[in-house]
Amino acid sequence: MTTPIYNNSDVLQPQAGHRGPNDSAVVFWVDIFLVGILALFTLMQLPRILARLTNTEEARFGHLLYTSQDLSRSRFTSLSSANTMSSHAPLFRRPSAEEEKGVQPIVVPRHIPSWTAVLRPITTILRIPFIGRIHFGGGLLLTGYFVTLLFAGVYKTSLFMNQVRPGYVAVSQIPWVVAFATKNNIISFVSGIGWDHLNYIHRFSGRLLVIAANVHAIGFIYRWTIAGSFTKHISQTRYTWGMVALVSVDVLFFFSLAIWRQRAHNIFFLSHLVAFILFLVAVCLHMPSILSYVLAGAGIYALDVILRAFKTRVTTARIYDVPELCATAVEVPSLNAGWRAGQHVRVRVLSVGMGWYGWAEAHPFTIASASLGTTRQGLVLLCKIAGRWTQKLYQLAADDTRKEDAGVGINIRVMVEGPYGGPGNTMMSSFSGAFMIAGGSGISYALAAAEELLQKAARNTSSVTILDLIWVVRHPEALAPYIPIFSSLMALSVTTTTALQISIFYTRAETHEHNFSALEVPEGITLNPGRPSVALRLQDLLSRTRNATLLPGCGSKPRGVFVGVCGPGPLADDVRRVIDNVESGEQRELGGIELHEEIYAL
């Protein structure tokens, strides 16, 4: 049996006699097809994009953190100044004469229903859980992505005869993989979906890239091995760099597995950074003809790095331990504007108290206060203990030896980067009703959203007339540090057209250690044992929204209900099921129900 002889002059080209389209042209047009899909999606979102950008209040927030001098500090409520067992702040106040004279006309924002509300029956199917936190709709999207790349790999060719095509497929996805990973990208802007909610597409597209690269390499390694020329080929510079690129991309895949992301994030990040840079360099030296794809990916990443540096602030923060929630409160008084409710920031603590490497770690936290807020001082975060870094932060905040005065907290230097994520093109203030439900430290999102809506209602720029806030905690004493804040929100709501209800549910029984007999719950706030019936609470809000008087400029029927949830995954699943069980006719009568989930996961 004779050994097949291969043309070694350029094994990166198809075998002699192979007929088919140019490989680079195939992947180019497939990328154009993907761009077309993105353009179509942008066109579908265009009305909501324009509605937000043409609204001054919405357009100027959500991009950069900054300091505004327009606030009166006398009205701030801080966790440090809050009495942990009672609040003597007045719950209600009447508008002053100056305020009554300066009443502004009601100018509600334009409301554009989301496609999830318009396509109600289809939305219910698309929200069925599929794999982990990925829903059926996301599964269909990933399936379509896979089929598209499979078409690019086998169109008028065979993977057994042409190993070059998978290589082109792999490098053609570099810009997409990078774009889905960056925190500042055009895909998030046009879709209104935060980078964290697109990260599952980044992981999937990255794995398809890894598969294509390995199919490309294994095909040539097999051919060289059976021809007895592996050593000869691998000693050539271009193929050596090809092996370097292959090892780099496999390292990227291995250290991106969930066990590394969740338990050794520093190793994940460092390996990603080093292997990614090495992969880009190696693939250019291996296949110079694909330089344009590498430059596109590098350009997207470089732009993201520049924007992240531009969005980073180095400032002083005050930290307090909140033992009732096993969390640390972080207040940044110097940053009081620039974000939207639901957005998060990444925080680095520049203190030796965090350990030798603690300063190098950046962690995401949802902002717990409203931009230009009047109930708390600046940007506020609630950092729940969830690992070594947050444990060290809590210990630092609880260290009495570092406190100058009791109850004042500790001043530290921090790097705050953001804001990111959030509601995207959705304007919460354009709905008729809002339902906020949070579990544990998820109160960060609910507080920021409620405060933002009430502030806009006070300025007569919100159409929300019914607002419910539900908080589920283990023990009722978790409410204690937040009584002054809840009291301020209740007081603010009395002066607006928005009716606020706050309900606290505790899931553990009262014990000697968890005794809340001294807890004074202000008027307007209910404290209930057990878990809330999300279905009953939501149905009650829908009924009150339907019967509420519409504000001027809101038309003749309700403008929909916004539902925001932040907390454990099962809580979000429960809320989603309840919304899907609401009759389609009732949803249409109310203008639709739009769900926003703040469930962060690596």
What are its keywords?
EC 1.16.1.9; Elongation Factor Tu (Ef-tu), domain 3; 602 residues; 3 domains; Fe3_Rdtase_TM_dom; transmembrane; alpha/beta; FNR_nucleotide-bd; 6-stranded parallel beta sheet; 21 helices; Rossmann fold; ferric-chelate reductase (NADPH) activity
Describe what is shown at a glance.
The protein is of the alpha/beta class and 602 residues long.
Question: Can you characterise this structure?
Answer:
Its EC number is 1.16.1.9. It is a multi-pass membrane protein. Keywords: Cell membrane, Electron transport, Glycoprotein, Ion transport, Membrane, Oxidoreductase, Transmembrane, Transmembrane helix, Transport. Helices cover 45% and strands 15% of the residues. It is an alpha/beta fold and 602 residues long. The protein folds into three domains: 23-48 and 119-182 and 185-309, no CATH class; 55-84 and 311-422, Translation factors (Elongation Factor Tu (Ef-tu), domain 3, Beta Barrel), CATH 2.40.30.10; 108-118 and 424-510 and 518-602, Nucleotide-binding domain of ferredoxin-NADP reductase (FNR) module (Rossmann fold, 3-Layer(aba) Sandwich), CATH 3.40.50.80. Helix 6 runs parallel beside helix 10 (195-226), helix 7 (164-172) packs antiparallel against helix 10 (195-226) and helix 8 (174-181) packs antiparallel against helix 10. The two termini are 54 Å apart.
What is the domain tally?
3
Shape from CA axes? globular
Instruction: Supply Rg.
Output: 27 Å
Calculate the terminal CA-CA distance, rounded to whole Å: 54 Å
The fraction of residues in strands falls at 15-25%
Mean pLDDT across all amino acids: 86
Please work out how many helical segments DSSP would assign.
21
In the predicted model, the low-confidence regions spanning at least 5 consecutive residues are: 1-19, 72-76, 80-101
Across the major sheet, the strand order is: 6-5-8-3-4-7
Total count of strands: 14
Biggest sheet layout? 6 strands, antiparallel
